[in-house]
Structures are given as structure tokens and as C-alpha cells.
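Wait, can you check?
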Amino acid sequence: MTTALMQLDIARTALIHAKSLQEIKQIIDIAKAAELYAKEAGLARENVEYATEIKIEAERKLGQTLMETPKSDGSSRGRTSKLGGKRFVPPNSPKTLKELGISKNLSSRSQKLACMNDDEFFNAKERIIKSSSLGGTNKILKEIKSQEKKDVQKKLYTEASKTYKPNTDIQIHNVDFREYAKKIEDNSIDLILTDPPYPKEFLPLWKDLAVVAERILKPGKFLIAYSGQLYLNEIFTYFKDAGLEYYWLAGLWHKGSTAIVNARNVINEMKPILIYCKPPLKKNQNTFIDMFISEKKNKDLHEWGQNIEVIELLIEKFSAPNDLIFEPFAGSGTTLTASKTLKRKCIGCETDKEMIDIIRGRVQ
């Protein structure tokens, strides 16, 4: 066993008795060195996890100690004064965080850990330990904060849904779209705007969507669907076989956001937006630029959520006020919410009951 790993047991015991910032920082450094060595040497996973666990526990104690330490005044930091026009440090003054090697990042991160109750810290620690990234702590804390934000937002919408009153203009149905579509009359829908799931196992839904769209759309009206890239060949075939006519392929650029598609070794920055028309094909009256820019994905309420601003733009370009829009995969209700804002009627279907309550809260 190397010196770095041998020191871990000593460091864990020392952490129990450590009181000063300097002592705790030294333990963090020992654990970080052992963690890095275990990874680079390709040692068993439990060695890495043991080092990470001690590091996280030490960081939490550092945060607790920082929060208990009186803050110095902001100008002189409680350490320096002027004597004869010269600045000097009084003897026996405490070291600054910078002198102790405690960065602003470490200070902030450790205090976030310190603010957690024991259950929250245990769960966060387990996630951090399982993270293979050296920057795993910051990433996990960011994810936890993001999840807390999502939970608060969902709770607010769920509470608002309790006062929801059914509206004939904005309808929400907890049902599979294929079942509900049986109630929709032929040639009655002005626009279908949707974001179906992309994985291969959901391809049958795309095939059924094409068949339903060809029946319920008014002649000359549009089906607009967000899509992934992997199975476009199959989707194009479904739409063509159903009798829909290809109109255009637009794109959604996720500005500042990328995803790695391992199946094709591609770094993906854009999402196709398929635009098909029910015959006879007619030129859309509104001119549009075929690359839409999304500054931020809306994943707070649903893992497949989309930016509402782009949805609103598509609605404005491909429909008119009082038109009837159908959304087969409502998700968190972005299309329904945008339709209400733009004075369109909309029918949405969603199989997830939790999402139904959120949608009702959003359109309330």
C-alpha cells in the first residue's frame, strides 16, 4: 500500500479531533492526493471511493468551521494596520483563507455541504462518491440545487392545479393520444405541434402519429414535430406512407448546449424540426427563418421539455388566433401554455398523471 493510501486511516481519525481550518485543510489535501493516486494508478474502485468519502466529510467540516468563524472586517480583514504610513501584520494574527490554500470555490462548496442536514448530506455524499469525475462534487451540488428548484416549481404548479377549472379552449386529457384521437373529427385540426420521444422503442408512436395526423388535420395544414436524428429515415417513411407531404426541415440550435451521441460519435448541437403538410400542399403564408435558436432548454418540469419562446414562434408562424392545435405528447404543457398566451385553442394528451397536475397549474 502506498504512503498516500496509508495516510487515509490516519486522516479519518484526525478529522474527528480537528478543530482549526489549517488542520482540516491538511486532511482534505491528503484525501485528494490519495483519490488522485488511486484513479491514476488504476486501483480498485473502493480505494477511490474511500478517499473521496474522507475528502467530502472533511470539506463539510471545513464548511461548518468556516460558518462558526467570526468574519473579519472587509477593509483590513482584521489583520493589517498602518504604522508610520506602512502596512504591517500584527503578530499572531490568523492566516487568511488564501494563505491556508482555501479557494473561494472550496469555501463556497464546503459551506453548501455544511448547510445540509444529515440525511441530505448522506445522499449527496453517496452521489459524489459514485461520480467518476474529479470535479464530481461541484457537479453533484449543482444538480442537487437544480433539482430543488424543479421540486419547488412543480409544487407551486401542483398547488395551483387544485383550483383548476376545465376550459373548452385549453383542454388537458390524461390519456394516450391514439385513444383520444378517436373522438376528434376528420379534417378538424389546424396544427399539430408536438415533441414525441426519440428512442427507438418509441418509433411505433411516430407511425401512429402520422396516421392520426393525416386524418384529423384540415387539408393544407401542418404537422410540426421535434425529432432526434438517429431514426429520421424510419420517420420519413412513416410520414410518407401515411399520405403526408414533406414541407421543410428546420432546425433548433441549442445555444451553448451540446450532447454526445455515442452511437454515431457525434457532438450534437441542433435538433431537427420536421414540417409536413396534409395534401394539398400549400405555401405557408408566414415567412420564417428555418434555424430557431434556443437560449435555454426548459427541463425544470420535464426531462424532454422545450423552450417556450420557440414553441410560441412556431405557433405564430403556422396558425392564426382561434385556430385549434393538437398536442399528442403534452409533457409539461409548454404547447398548451403558449397556445393560451397566443389566443389559440389547444387539446393536449399526456399519460403521466403528475404532469397533468403541473399542466393545469401552468394554464390556470
